## 1
Amino acid sequence: MKKKPPDGMSVPEFLAGFAMTGRIEGVGLDSTPDEWERQLGSDFVDDHDRKQFRRDYGLVELGFWREEGNWTCGLISVQVHRLWHDRETIGPAGLREKHGDFPKAVRFVELRDELGRSGNELVLVEDEVPNGYRRYYVPPGKAVMLVDAAPGPRDPEDPPYGSLWSLSAAPLPWINPMKVHKK
């Protein structure tokens, strides 16, 4: 049975909020690893390099770069496709507790409609993304959605056609603004 989110915010609303603000639980780009840990907890894996590292909470992945001796967040990615195989246990647990049970897949149309209700534009990024994916950009949060748009026969082990694969926020140079078209 699907648990009702205590704050009344559905998963599409949570994802739309991230897409519009570039923040999760009040933390966003340019935040420190300690700020993320205070908000999302300590159940993560870090993969370190001298000048960058990746923090993996399961559903949420963060990229940090060293600037002037300090680590700052330069990439936030919600790996929605991971829900397909591990939605009951995927972390961070605090997000599940706050927003209720995560579905196995989030349909692009649900997120598109939620963003539309909030008056936010969604723009198609006209570029070559491999394997039938499409990218959409949400300017307020500097967020990019990767959507599985490959029609045809599906492997039952994969999320369904039209599912959101990931939702990421990063500084603008991450996408080529010359290829962004309003849709």
## 2
Amino acid sequence: MRSLVSLRLFSANILRLHPSRSPWLAFQRSVRHQAFDANLDQDQLAEARKWHQSFHLASIPAGNTTFSRSSGPGGQHVNKTETKATTTWPISQLLGMLPKHLHAGLRSSKYYVQRNDAISIQAQTHRSRAANTDDNRQKLFDEIEKLYRGAVPNATDPEKIRRHAALQTAANEDRLNNKKYASSKKQSRKGGGSYY
């Protein structure tokens, strides 16, 4: 309770002295010089990076493809054949092939259908069923690549890690030097006596 009262007094003093500042600005940067992926599970990131090295278009499962009549250009061929391909992959099937770090983002895809709990992609740009089916697989591959790039940061190179450690060490030394300077200034006030 006492710390809450002192926090409110501190906030009131900041607002009184600096009305444009938020009272929580002093607490916003409590963790300094932290790497971007410091809060992420490093084991899951390593698993995702290893998985991505072997991920290619052939890794995509076939899915369940249905065909229907296409719309748009194509002349008489469009009216007579069913070349529009709609391919559906159940989420449970895709979760088995993806690393854990990408599981959460799969349901946020623009191709996700909540009613079926599946990814559903349509293609009708080509005049053949096989080409449209391959186009669907390519779209899913591109979507998973996009999901990977958004969820998994690149591995940090050793030089950057070394520079980060040097910055952190310099910041700690600077902080300690400032504390020592402030302490010596207070000590000189206490023991110095009167100048008159």
